[in-house]
Specification:
33% of the residues lie in helices and 17% in strands. The chain is an alpha/beta fold and 498 residues long. The chain has 2 domains: 355 residues, TIM Barrel (Alpha-Beta Barrel), CATH 3.20.20; 112 residues, CBS-domain. The strands form 6 sheets. An 8-stranded parallel β-barrel has the order 4-5-12-13-14-15-16-17, surrounded by 7 helices. It has a 4-stranded mixed β-sheet with strand order 6-11-10-9. A 3-stranded antiparallel β-sheet has the order 18-19-20. Strand 7 and strand 8 form a beta hairpin.
């Protein structure tokens, strides 16, 4: 008789107690493969596959074009928020669809009044110093020069302005040039950088020889049949979203998320049916839901995937303010168990603070993990960095915070016409996480190690083991949770991506 230590998910998550990710642990399996043998390929929806189970949340401090591009290059997908005009959101989708690997769409830019010491600071932090100089030190401003190592290496006075040392006679390329054409210019000119300008000489992008060599191709890239990056966008259940859908479809959006805090509504069901009738080529992610009954309603309406979670996010107060929701681990297991039988994948949305939480969400039946705070604070997230007590931060706010709702997020909470707005989230800040080109591969490699410890090579096998009860779990006491983290140290240094 085979020993079955621990407990099945059914034994744990069908009890009267609801559980969060930290409340349980996955028991180890048998290892007979290396981490790099693990495949993280999964389904986002019935029809869209991803090479990585990473999805960014449609929040205005998390996902715009830069985030969506970065995630798509690493096999995931970004969902662009709707706290903007219809045209702005459609333009962001278009930027992702037009993207070609190699172009830097948001390069660091300085002004002629900046000093050599500013270049030194950038070089120390990012390990590069070929920086375009524009009239006002901003992108989409007229390009006036370029400063590289060779221009400043032997300059003793680091207080000199860039206008005194920059190269003004520049080799440039016009906006619209293909990556192949731009690469040929770099190769024949033997230049390290190629600024891309518009018809009025304004800087719109940059091409770097070192980046071309380093990122020649992204084998995990999430692409459509036209070899364009895939991208999603959020819409509401309001009539305005019908006009928004038309613009998003024209821009080439692959999937829409109907962004409602409580998705089991007549408004969402009617919107799903409208999209299926008028835009059958666009996949639909319905939600948010946390019960099997809610899943049933949206699946019958035609949803291609479901977004799971009510209130578990780090900046969300729905469960406290509204007394409605469900602990996230239980919500993921119960909804996934039902939806997977219908061939509909679920996204675990909220409550994820580390690699272990992603692994736990997948082990409970989720096909992907949608994250906000995990990606906020990266270079690719919207917003500017600021310092507080010497710590480099970026703003992060819930879409139910007062600030976000005043900017348009109230569409998500059926509160657009309310005379009194009740916030269900907060605004705050998160620490700088650097570039997604460092962060995403770190998350994926961590997931591969987690799968190795569990003893499975892919998400399909993980789910099969979940429902066959071969995958085993155990509840953790408060002391067990403390024991499982760093403890009893006088001091310690956290890893860069904790």
């Amino acid at each position: 008789m085979q020993i079955k230590d621990g407990f099945s998910a059914e034994e744990i998550f069908t009890t009267p107690t609801g559980y969060a990710y930290n409340d349980f642990i996955i028991l180890p399996g048998y290892i007979d493969f290396a981490p790099d043998d693990v495949s993280l390929e999964t389904n986002l929806t019935r029809n869209i596959k991803l090479k990585s189970p990473l999805v960014s949340s449609p929040m205005d401090t998390v996902t715009e074009a830069e985030m969506a591009i970065a995630l798509a290059l690493w096999g995931g997908i970004g969902i662009i928020h709707y706290n903007n005009t219809i045209q702005q959101q459609a333009d962001l989708v278009s930027r992702v669809k037009r993207y070609e690997n190699g172009f830097i769409n948001k390069p660091l830019v300085l002004s002629p009044q900046h000093k050599i010491s500013d270049v030194d600071m950038i070089k120390a932090r990012y390990n590069f110093s070929g920086i375009p100089v524009t009239e006002d030190g901003k992108l989409n401003s007229r390009l006036v020069g370029m400063v590289t190592n060779r221009d400043i290496d032997f300059e003793k006075d680091r207080t000199k302005t860039l206008s005194e040392v920059m190269v003004k006679d520049l080799l440039t390329a016009r906006e619209g040039i293909t990556l192949s054409e731009a690469n040929n210019i770099l190769r024949t000119s033997k230049k390290g950088k190629l600024p891309i300008i518009d018809s009025e000489g304004r800087l719109v992008a940059l091409l770097s020889r070192s980046d071309l060599l380093k990122n020649r191709e992204f084998p995990l890239s999430t692409k459509d049949e036209k070899k364009q990056l895939r991208v999603g966008a959020a819409i509401s259940t309001k009539d305005e979203s019908k006009e928004r859908l038309a613009a998003l479809s024209e821009a080439g959006v692959d999937v829409v998320v109907i962004d409602s805090a409580q998705g089991n509504s007549i408004y969402q069901i009617e919107m799903i049916k409208y999209i299926k009738k008028n835009y059958p080529h666009i996949d639909i992610i319905g939600g948010n839901v946390v019960t099997e009954e809610q899943c049933e309603m949206l699946i019958k309406a035609g949803a291609d995937a479901l977004r799971i979670g009510m209130g578990p996010g780090s900046i969300c107060t729905t469960q406290t303010t509204m007394a409605v929701g469900r602990p996230q681990a239980t919500a993921v297991y119960r909804t996934a168990r039902y939806s997977n039988k219908q061939g509909v994948p679920v996204l675990a949305d909220g409550g994820i603070a580390n690699i272990g939480h992603i692994s736990k969400a997948l082990s409970l039946g989720a096909s992907t993990a949608m994250m906000g705070s995990m990606f906020a604070g990266t270079n690719e997230a919207p917003g500017e960095y600021f310092y507080d007590n010497g710590v480099r931060l970026k703003k992060y706010r819930g879409m139910a915070s007062m600030e976000a709702m005043e900017a348009g997020g109230n569409k998500r909470y059926f509160a657009e016409d309310a005379k009194i707005i009740v916030a269900q989230g907060v605004s705050g800040a998160v620490m700088d996480k650097g570039s997604m080109n460092d962060y995403a591969p770190y998350l994926l490699q961590g997931l591969k190690h987690s799968f190795q410890d569990i003893g499975v090579k892919n998400i399909k096998t993980l789910h099969e083991n979940l429902y066959s009860k071969e995958l085993r779990f155990e509840i953790r006491s408060a002391m067990a949770q403390r024991e499982g983290h760093v403890h009893d140290m006088y001091s310690y240094k956290e890893p860069q991506f904790m």
